[in-house]
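Problem 12. The chain below contains 402 residues. Write out its predicted structure in token notation.
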Amino acid sequence: MHFMTKLFTNFNLFDGSKAKITPGSWMEVDEKSGKILHIGSGEKQADVENVDLKGKYVMPGLINVHTHIMMNPITNKLEYLSEAEVTYQALKNLKELLKSGVTYIRDCGCAFDVDVKLAKLQKEGVFAGTEIMPSGRPMSMTGGHGDFIEGWDGETTWGHLTDSPDEMRKAVRQAFKIGAKNIKVMATGGVMSATDQIDDTELSLEELKTAVEEAHSKHMTVAAHAEGERGIHNAVLAGVDSIEHGSYVSDEDIELMLKQGTFLTPTLIAAYTIPKYGKGKLPQYMLDKASSFMDKYFERIGAAIKAGVKISFGTDAGTPFNGFKDTSFELELLTGVGASNEQALFAATKNASELLHIDSEYGTLETGKYADFIVLDTNPLADIKAVQQDDKGVYKKGVKKF
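Solution.
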């Protein structure tokens, strides 16, 4: 039985696995599966539909491993959201992500488990677009980062409130039961919660260890929101897969992360946008928290990059003024703190797919993987701002979406 194939020709390829551009590239895609059948360069003749990419630059679609599709970055409404409002916002944000070249996300905490529900609908073919690895509701301590009131009547909270290892185990199992693929744990306070400080240590080491043990025994990963130094240390000790933010990461923990292969998702843009756009629009506590730690934060992330910590790519999209269309700006911020262009691009492609354990099918453009790619006018290895192009071509599983 022969299915249609499509041949993309005449492009410069950055495949996401090597720091080089291959001119005169071509790629043959199976239209039924959306996977790459063959990829190469030079002359290629085939009796199939031919798409000439006119000498432009092709790279893998961006993988954003830290989004909050429930959030509106302009209104910043966080509490008393209904499930309908969260779902409506999420669908809108997913469209914006796709248009900006993000073909896969890990959502890092969604009220009412809406990300889990949408991911299930995607798998059933109800709607296509940017794929979701869901975390469902995050794990938070009572009064901690994640204890936001949700529902019109305030009948639930954003996160599961877990105040002991037993409560953590139960919450992780509940997330597993409904189909979460990642567990988000709040190891420290945060910028957006009024009740705590960034360096507050929240979930205990025992609670974090329980989350990791329970998740890892069920093919799930664990991402830790961790900004303060002690909370980062606990999360690294507990064996989480990734430290999200990592604002005050110590030299000792950088060493430990290198040894364990722990990923770091810097989300620099989330700190950058608050003081830049928030004056007079955001609560003073948020502005104070963000501006007080930004220099130190950027310096510590630079130190981790220099040391060789595995960098994964996420933006915390949905936080104040941190739009879903702005994902590619994070690449520029990463180079600003010391990443090379290729390190930034690898973070958003192969590293991100490794962190999510989806690297057998996503993250690089190779035979047997999905044809998720973006088409740019200029060379992203030479100029990281190339990825910020507004009208870039976006292909998901070989189908042009924008």
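Discussion. The chain has ten helices and 19 strands. Students who got a different answer should revisit the alignment rule from Section 12.3.
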